[in-house]
Specification:
The structure holds 2 protein chains of 2 kinds.
Chain A (H helix, E strand, L loop, with lengths): L6 H13 L4 H11 L3 H7 L30 H5 L8 H12 L11 H21 L2 H9 L3 E3 L11 H8 L5 H12 L12 H9 L2 H30 L3 H15 L3 H17 L7 H10 L3 H18 L50 E2 L25 H16 L13 H18 L3 H20 L33 E3 L5 E3 L21 H13 L5 H16 L4 E2 L17 H7 E2 L15 E3 L5 H4 L13 H8 L10 H7 L4 E3 L19 H30 L4
Parallel strand pairs in A: 1-8
Antiparallel strand pairs in A: 2-3, 3-4, 5-6
Helix pairs in contact in A: 1-2, 14-15, 16-20, 17-18
Chain B lengths: L15 E4 L5 E4 L15 H5 L15 H23 L24 H7 L2 H4 L3 E4 L6 E5 L5 E6 L3 E6 L4 E7 L4 E6 L5 E6 L2 E6 L4 E9 L1 E7 L4 E6 L3 E6 L4 E7 L7 E5 L4 E5 L4 E5 L8 E4 L5 E6 L5 E6 L3 E6 L4 E7 L6 E4 L5 E5 L2 E5 L12 E4 L4 E7 L4 E6 L2 E6 L19 H13 L22 H12 L20 H40 L20
Antiparallel strand pairs in B: 1-2, 3-30, 4-5, 5-6, 6-7, 8-9, 9-10, 10-11, 12-13, 13-14, 14-15, 16-17, 17-18, 18-19, 20-21, 21-22, 22-23, 24-25, 25-26, 26-27, 28-29, 29-30
Classes of the chains: A mainly alpha, B alpha+beta.
Chain lengths: 716, 554
């Protein structure tokens, strides 16, 4: 620090210079009076040697406060010289001016700092202007569909009025005329009013009572109408024919004034029906026929009756016969065969009519009439036969037996015992056919196939039932026929041809009224039980349950992961044949396999569900979940809804398949202007902004902290 | 004069957009208070028909983008369900029914009586074709119910538009006919004949002879997959893609003669019934049955699955009829019948037709409740040989030994048809367009599985598993991928260096190959030389200059 020279020194030195030689004493007193220490003077009066801020050659200037406190020149010391002087005001002003705090410009910042600041300011300004658009941007990003140009006016169809109103200028003469007419019309509805002029007038002219009365009247009318409508609807819904017939009659009576005539007609009709005249071949007709040969009048009467009969017989829609084509043997459609006596002779083939069968005319008969082979199954309701099966099957059995117990045991049927003779016969016949057909390969296959088939059918199809009681509740239709028929469809008659073609001709001969096919309705169930027993006994050999449980067990065992044995026999042991690794070793080196996940069919004894992987469908499945998803469940939920028109309504399909952006063809898509801005509401963007600003502040605060730290360390 | 309200003209400022339940914006006009605000409510049970899977919560998700997306999807789903449910309003037709008087039972009513009571067109659908020459008939209706195909055991095949009673073709194939089946349209049908299966067109012209489908006993057709199923006498189940003419899969079921077959219409899984009382379910993709279920103790006679694919009806020789739930494989009801039903068939509305010898019984909704009485019964003269409900009609077609009977079953058919799906009244052009569309929408046979939604599941298989799958599908192991040298630092991955390294590996492989070949050759040569050594060679003639004049032997 440089010591500053007191201001008085200058004055004193000026004095000495001017007077020349002054006594030392006087000089010293002067110095004292000025408060200058003579010893220190030498030290302090240093000339400025290097460039400092103070620009004073003789180090004239302020002294630092601490070391020259006493020697500081004060104002009052200077003012002493002013004593007795007038016109101080000027001086005062001058001093005041001097006393005012000095205003000086800061030194300009360095360029990078200045630029940084500039950038910051610019950024803030820009971000505020841009952030006005945040709402719009967010909205457009979220939007499912954008159609450009934006802010299109929705398509509106103008009403006639609006159209005319807008057009207004050029009207055709017709339009003008219409408008002239319409303008004066009181009934016309008005844009700004609910009611037309006429209506308003009517309302005003009506008194309150009148209006009420009118309203009540209208209400009543409306109510009546609705009642009537409801009644009609209700009546229409009634399904009873009788009711409608009665209604029709009543209506007819109401409509036609001649009620008597109707009555008469009814009576006549009733008489007609009662007399049986309407029927062809009635007693009356028979009698008349004899006379009619001779009597014209009777003949005429008869004709009239015939015509009437025909009229009566006409159905509203006669159901025509169905002819497939002219070539087929014409088979008329028949109805209600329930009551008909069925003529089985019809079934014999008209060979000459059928071109296909005509070739068989010279065929030699290979008489191999097969008996009806009714292989009947026997069943057993008791489970004792199955008890010795595998343990697993017992649960299965309980399942099945439960099923049996649950079943409705209302119907019992009788099955005749197996006819072993019939089977024998069948087999003989079959072998015959085989031997005869061996020569011709073409026919052989067919015969064999046929025989197999018949055998199979016999196995399955020809269970026969007996009806013991006519008052069957279950199957009333079965007993309606007076003569129950027995059917033996498996009767075959084979004919082999020398040329090789073998054809079959069904012949149903054995049609008798034997009670073979009759349904049973009996109260004593014992018979039915017996039969069931026989069925089950017949199939006792193939134990289905045990087989199934065995299969399942095998499958489960096969699919289990195996334990891995890594023990080496002979390692660390005495060698030789017949070395058995110790138990400890085995235990040590056996890595046990993890138990497999529980099977799907673990609780279903009667079901085997495969656990195999379906590699074909895996080809089409998604293996990796796409980006924003983290949970496969969510992803599955989003793709499970179909988009196609097969499963959705047209409008849904359109909305689901709407493109993200659509543009109007030929329209200019100009950039958005400030009017189309959305108010800034989004929370997200604000957060972002805050974060940004926060980041900025944190950066500057960090810098401040660093500066503070430096100050504390005393580094400036 | 009564006061009337006029709608105030809509001013753009007055229009308020409000989102109603369907997510559709509806402009609301300032009006007196509407007592029934918003769109009409839809009953929940109707909505549930169109829902897919359960609803899922969105609240716990942290990712906002995902959350928003899921929320949007949910909203869209809901709107779609509502829309679909609302469109049921357009299904105006109601199913048929029988109304009896007091004390009268429906099963006592005869066909004649039903026909008399019904309107003319319905009555005309009750008819009988007496074709007693060519023996028991199998029956099939097209998917729109318009055309009928009958195949007599003794070779008679006839196709006709049964409603108009207009024949299309009739022929005798001069061979036993086991089964007949319409293909995707009424233009083609398949006939399972004694030796092979044939395809004919609607004129009866033989289009194809499928020799690979031999000894077929039963045919079926999967309409959405264009697959013709053939069950064989030797226990083979075959799938033929009729759009490509290729056999997709041949499965040896090892279950003996396959005479009982039906399809599950919900998931296109094929069900077979066997002699040992088991029912097996098959898809073309697996050689083993998807499910094997022991349903009866005796041989099965017939099986049927209803339209929803939820219920299975089985009948066996033990004279029982059982209803199973296909989803849980548990038996729901069992009841005794006079005989094992030789044929079972579900109608579109869940009626079960069953034939016992010459009696045909129809049960009304047997899956919900075990029937105490049949809904209708009908007695034929001969045992029934086939049953088929006509789609979209209240008609049951029965084939028997003496021809074909068309029975009226009020309420059996679905009253409303989807004209895009199967239109009974479609024109030729519509049919053609439908055919193209159906082919475009054809489902691959790979996608058949027990769970129809499996395709929409994420398969979390390991990469190893996927590789294994691929090898299994291809049938061979793919070559290891090309050698790609890894990246090395310090300029060692310059293109030249990389190429050098590649060449090194390639050469090494080549060397290995050559070495192995050489070894093989050596081995061959050694073997040959051994052979030569064994063979006694002739001693060579001494060389002489005169040899050149000798006659050269070839």
């Amino acid at each position: 620090m440089t010591k500053l020279e007191p201001a008085g020194k200058l004055l004193a030195s000026d004095d000495t210079d001017s007077e020349g030689e002054v006594s030392d004493f006087a000089h010293e007193t002067l110095l004292k009076s000025l408060g200058v220490d003579k010893d220190k003077k030498e030290e302090t009066s240093k000339q400025r040697t290097e460039s400092v801020q103070e620009v004073s050659v003789f180090s004239l200037g302020q002294k630092s406060y601490d070391d020259t406190h006493a020697g500081k020149v004060h104002l009052h010391q200077l003012i002493n010289s002013l004593e007795g002087k007038s016109n101080i005001n000027i001086l005062k002003k001058q001093i005041n001016r001097v006393k005012r705090p000095t205003q000086h410009l800061n030194a300009p910042l360095s360029k990078p700092v200045a630029e940084r600041l500039q950038r910051k300011v610019e950024y803030e300004k820009a971000s505020t202007t841009v952030s006005h658009w945040d709402g719009t941007v967010q909205k457009n990003r979220k939007a499912d569909h954008l159609s450009f140009p934006l802010n299109q006016k929705p398509l509106q169809i103008k009403t006639v009025d609006e159209f005319l109103f807008h057009k207004s200028k050029k009207l055709t003469p017709l339009e003008e005329e219409i408008q002239a007419l319409m303008n004066g019309n009181k009934c016309l509805e008005r844009k700004d009013h609910d009611l037309s002029v006429l209506e308003e007038e009517a309302l005003t002219t009506l008194s309150l009572e009148e209006a009420r009365a009118r309203r009540a009247e209208l209400q009543k009318h409306r109510a009546l109408l609705s009642y009537h409508e409801a009644k009609n609807r209700r009546q229409n819904k009634i399904k009873s024919k009788k009711y409608h017939r009665m209604m029709r009659k009543r209506k007819m009576k109401e409509d036609s004034p001649k009620a008597l005539d109707i009555k008469l007609a009814d009576q006549q009709r009733a008489e007609e029906r009662a007399s049986l005249r309407h029927r062809a071949g009635s007693k009356w007709e028979k009698g008349r026929k004899l006379i009619a040969k001779h009597d014209e009048k009777t003949k005429f009467e008869l004709d009239a009756q015939k015509q009437k009969h025909e009229e009566l017989m006409v159905r509203p829609e006669p159901m025509g016969s169905v002819d497939l084509s002219a070539e087929t043997p014409t088979i008329p459609a028949t109805f209600g065969n329930d009551g008909d006596a069925f003529d089985h002779a019809v079934l014999k083939l008209p060979v000459e009519n059928n071109p296909w069968l005509s070739c068989t005319s010279e065929t030699t008969k290979n008489d191999s009439k097969l008996d009806n082979t009714s292989v009947t199954a026997k069943c057993d309701s008791g489970d004792e036969l199955l008890c010795d099966n595998a343990a697993k099957s017992s649960s299965l059995m309980t399942w099945l037996s439960q099923e049996e117990n649950n079943s409705v045991e209302s119907m019992k049927t009788v099955v005749p015992a197996i006819d072993s003779e019939a089977v024998k016969k069948f087999k003989e016949a079959f072998s015959k056919i085989k031997s005869s057909g061996d020569g011709e390969d073409g026919s052989y296959d067919f015969i064999q196939e046929r025989a197999e088939n018949s055998e199979h059918e016999a196995n399955s199809e020809s269970l026969k039932f007996k009806t013991l009681d006519k008052g069957d509740h279950k199957f009333p239709n079965l007993n309606t026929g007076d003569s129950p028929e027995e059917i033996s469809c498996t009767n075959l008659k084979t004919k082999s041809n020398s040329t090789g073609s073998t054809l079959f001709k069904p012949e149903i001969e054995n049609i008798s009224t034997s009670s073979d096919l009759k349904f049973v309705h009996d109260d004593n169930n014992s018979l039915g039980d017996e039969q069931r027993m026989t069925i089950e006994q017949a199939f006792a050999d193939d134990d289905v349950l045990a087989e199934f449980s065995f299969e399942k067990n095998e499958l489960i065992e096969g699919s289990k992961p195996k334990d891995i044995d890594l023990s080496l026999p002979g390692w660390g042991e005495w060698g030789g044949t017949g070395v058995v690794p110790s138990k400890r070793k085995k235990r040590k080196f056996l890595t046990k396999a993890k138990p497999p996940p529980p099977r799907k069919d673990v609780n279903l004894d009667h079901v085997i569900i495969t656990e195999d992987r379906d590699i074909q469908i895996a080809k089409h499945q998604v293996h990796d979940i796409p980006f924003p998803f983290v949970n496969s469940d969510h992803f599955e939920k989003t793709i499970v809804r179909p988009v196609g028109s097969t499963w959705n309504t047209p409008s849904t399909v359109k909305s689901l398949t709407n493109p993200e952006v659509s543009t109007l063809l030929g329209a200019i898509i100009s950039p958005m202007d400030s009017e189309s801005k959305e108010p800034n509401k989004t929370k997200n963007k604000n957060n972002f902004k805050k974060q940004k600003v926060g980041a900025h502040t944190s950066r500057s605060s960090r810098k401040q902290n660093r500066l503070q730290k430096l100050k504390i360390l005393g580094i400036d | 004069m009564a006061g009337r309200y006029y709608e105030k003209r809509k001013l753009s400022s007055e229009i308020k957009k409000n989102e109603d339940e369907d997510g559709l914006s509806v402009s609301e006009v300032a009006q007196p208070e509407d007592p029934f605000k918003g769109s009409a409510p839809i009953p929940e049970e109707r909505k549930s028909l169109y829902k897919r899977g359960k609803e899922f919560p969105v609240d716990g998700i942290k990712n906002k983008k995902l959350k928003g997306f899921l929320r949007n999807t949910k909203k869209r789903d809901k709107a779609a369900v509502n829309q679909a449910a609302r469109y049921e309003l357009l299904l105006t037709e109601e199913p048929g029914y029988i109304e009896t008087e007091e004390g009268e039972a429906t099963w006592e009513i005869k066909q004649r009586e039903i026909a008399d009571a019904a309107d003319i067109t319905s009555a005309s659908k009750y008819f009988e074709l007496r074709l007693d020459q060519f023996g028991p008939y199998s029956v099939d209706y097209t998917r729109n119910g318009r055309h009928l195909l009958i195949g007599g055991r003794r070779g008679h095949v006839a196709a006709f538009d049964w409603m108009a009673k207009k024949p299309m073709c009739e022929m005798n194939v001069m061979e036993a006919v086991n089964d007949v089946k319409w293909l995707h349209t009424e233009n083609m049908f398949a006939v399972a004949q004694h030796r092979w299966t044939y395809i004919y067109d609607n004129q009866g012209i033989e289009l194809h002879c499928l020799k690979r489908l031999d000894q077929t006993l039963k045919l079926d057709f999967l309409p959405y997959h264009f697959l013709l199923l053939a069950a064989n006498a030797r226990g083979f189940l075959q799938y033929l893609d009729i759009s490509q003419g290729q056999i997709v899969s041949t499965i040896n079921t090892k279950c003996g003669r396959l005479e009982v077959l039906c399809q599950n219409p919900a998931n296109a899984v094929v069900l077979l019934g066997h002699y040992n009382g088991t029912v097996t379910m098959w898809s073309p993709n697996q050689k083993k049955p998807l499910v094997k279920m022991l349903s009866h103790k005796t041989a099965l006679r017939s099986i049927a699955v209803d339209q929803t694919g939820n219920y299975l009806a089985t009948s066996a020789q033990d004279r029982k009829l059982k209803i199973f739930d296909v989803r849980t494989f548990k038996s729901l009801h069992t009841w005794s019948v006079p005989a094992g039903a030789s044929h079972l068939k579900f109608s579109q509305r869940g009626f079960l037709g069953a034939s016992f010898q010459n009696v045909v019984e129809i049960y009304n909704n047997p899956c919900i409740q075990p029937p105490t009485n049949p809904y209708l019964t009908h007695k034929l003269k001969f045992p029934a040989s086939d049953l088929d409900f006509c789609p979209y009609e209240d008609v049951l077609g029965v084939g028997c030994a003496d021809g074909f009977v068309s029975l009226l079953v009020p309420g059996a058919g679905e009253p409303n048809y989807d004209s895009f799906e199967s239109n009974p009244y479609r024109s030729k052009k519509q049919r053609k367009e439908w055919e193209v569309r159906a082919l475009l929408e054809k489902i691959q046979p790979d996608m058949i599985s027990l769970d129809p939604f499996q395709i929409a599941r994420v398969d979390m298989a390991t990469a190893e598993q996927l590789q294994k799958d691929k090898e299994e599908r291809l049938g061979f192991k793919q070559e290891s991928p090309k050698f790609e040298p890894r990246f090395k630092n310090k300029g060692r991955s310059k293109s030249g260096n990389v190429e050098k390294r590649k060449r090194k590996v390639r050469n090494e492989e080549l060397r290995k190959k050559i070495r192995s070949e050489a070894e093989k050759n050596n081995a061959n040569e050694a073997a040959e030389s051994q052979m030569e050594a064994n063979v006694i060679t002739k001693p060579l003639e001494p060389k002489s200059a005169l040899n050149r004049f000798k006659k050269k032997t070839k």
